[in-house]
Write a structure and sequence with these properties.
The protein contains 17 helices and 10 strands. It is mostly helical. It has 2 domains: 56-216 and 252-282; 307-488, no CATH class. Helix 2 crosses helix 4. Residues 2-29 have low confidence and may be disordered.
Length: 492
């Protein structure tokens, strides 16, 4: 399981991924799961303790007009929207800064530029032409944004609340300095993870109707915010890029996790993020692509999705979990299943104990996305993790557990994360093959959970409603093992 992406700046990544809204319209091959809500953080019908909601994520009707000034503005709608976001994020911090050291001082210096204009000015010593970005410049206590490309594309595909999320991240960098949480020696990854976390805490405030200016639904609205977070990850690192482990912006899992910490636990938890905390939650997930010992080249190619690779994955899972009755693997999509119905490209039939893979569909799902064309992140493990999830359904069946419930869907996501963790170390198979998780594979799993939901669905392909909660359950598995998943998501 390998992956490769073209290296590019984090700012460009953020722009490219804003063309992915079409991929976020569904949450799985079936409907969403039905069932009775349960208490706690892992309720499948909640998002961090809030109910799953659909509806507008937009500027509120009757929102107060934007107040303040923007340097170099063209006076257009984009800058008016961004000024409104500065007012809103400042209100959030006026209400929520109290747990941090020091005192909150609102940022009052804002600048707009057009990255498509060759005459776009130097800002804080940096060029802005062809640099679609938003950033905080500490020496000038300035927040700047690109009105020409970055913000308009984001608004088009993710709605106006995404602009508020962008501002919340940049404003978070200013708050770090006010509170003395960082200094010039602080690794970049800590700067960025804290800011992602602060943005998550702000989004919680909006979702709870704390904002007088914006709304955010915890279903589709938050899904789109998370898609932008995933897109703004660092490219997969090679050994030559190893310093980016601490000096980059983070993987998709890093960035989503930080946003979820803020959304669930608030500002104080964000302030506690440091390098040790980041390393602790990363654990042994591979961060850098491996080098082939024989050729000396970086193993950066995608593993082709085909009968051989899928069979190798199923053999690997059997080697790890050793079920008494290993599920059979079939590529015959015409076979009927009397006790499960799913239109997913990979299914499990309890009656026959068979995993059936629709090979052409999985090949398409596992094809590395050309993100330069605005595609959402996907790759070999987007498809292979879907297969893993059906093997996890088979394990549940052997334990006599319910397979068609919300609990089963959450358990499946957790078990899929646990299985990915098991494959971090190379596994030599009896058949002579070798299977191993590589850098970037977990990000592909996370993206699949958000865009198709198969990895957090029950035997009928019915997914947990909110992408946020699917990823939360998968992350729980990454941090533990299968037995803990069975305990945490036990049938009532």
């Amino acid at each position: 399981m390998t992956s490769h992406r073209t290296s590019r700046s984090a700012a460009t990544l953020g722009v490219l991924a804003l063309c992915t809204a079409a991929l976020l319209t569904g949450c799985g091959s079936g409907d969403t799961v039905k069932g009775t809500p349960v208490s706690g953080l892992f309720d499948p019908f909640e998002v961090g303790g809030l109910p799953v909601t659909d509806g507008p994520s937009d500027v509120r009707d009757g929102a107060p007009p934007p107040a303040g000034e923007v340097r170099d503005t063209d006076g257009g709608k984009v800058d008016q929207l961004m000024l409104l976001t500065t007012n809103d994020v400042a209100d959030f911090w006026q209400q929520n800064y109290g747990s941090l050291p020091g005192a909150f001082r609102p940022v009052q210096n804002f600048l707009s530029y057009d990255s498509q204009n060759p005459q776009s000015p130097m800002v804080c010593g940096a060029k802005t032409y062809e640099r679609p970005n938003a950033f905080y410049c500490h020496r000038e206590r300035l927040i700047a944004w690109d009105r020409g490309l970055l913000v308009p594309v984001g608004v088009k595909y993710f709605g106006k609340t995404s602009a508020a999320g962008l501002m919340a991240h940049e404003y978070g960098h200013a708050v770090q300095r006010m509170a003395g949480l960082v200094n010039p020696r602080t690794p970049t990854i800590v700067f960025e993870q804290q800011a992602d976390c602060f943005a998550g805490a702000y989004m919680r405030w909006v979702a709870e109707d704390g904002s007088p200016r914006f709304t955010l639904s915890t279903g589709d609205g938050l899904n789109k915010i998370l898609a932008a977070v995933i897109a703004s990850r660092d490219p997969v690192l090679t050994p030559a890029d190893a310093e980016m482990i601490e000096e980059g912006h983070g993987t998709a899992l890093d960035r989503v996790t930080a946003a979820q910490i803020g959304f669930v636990s608030g500002v104080s938890a964000c302030a506690a993020i440091d390098l040790d905390e980041i390393y602790q939650r990363r654990g042994d997930i591979p961060m850098v692509l491996q080098v082939d010992e024989e050729t000396g080249s970086v193993n950066s190619g995608q593993l082709p999705i085909g009968e051989e690779s899928i069979a190798s994955l199923v053999e690997t899972l059997g080697f790890i979990y050793k079920p008494e009755q290993p599920p059979a693997l079939s590529f015959d999509t015409g076979a009927e299943c009397p006790d499960a119905t799913s239109a997913a490209p990979v299914t499990y039939c309890p009656a026959t104990n068979t995993i059936t893979a629709d090979l052409p569909a999985l090949e398409e799902m596992g094809r590395a996305a050309n993100e330069d064309d605005g595609m959402m992140l996907q790759g070999d493990n987007t498809a292979l993790s879907a297969v893993t999830s059906r093997y996890m359904i088979a394990l549940q069946h052997q334990r006599g557990l319910a397979l068609d419930s919300a609990t089963a869907a959450m358990r499946t996501a957790c078990l899929t994360g646990a299985a990915d963790r098991e494959m971090v170390e190379p596994i030599s198979l009896p058949s002579g093959g070798n299977f191993q998780l590589t850098a970037g594979d977990v990000d592909e799993s996370v993206s699949g959970l958000l865009t198709n939901g198969i990895g957090a669905s029950d035997v009928n392909g019915n997914a947990v409603p909110a992408g946020f909660t699917r990823i939360l359950a998968y992350r729980a598995g990454l941090q533990t093992n299968a037995d803990r998943c069975f305990d945490q998501f036990a049938d009532e």
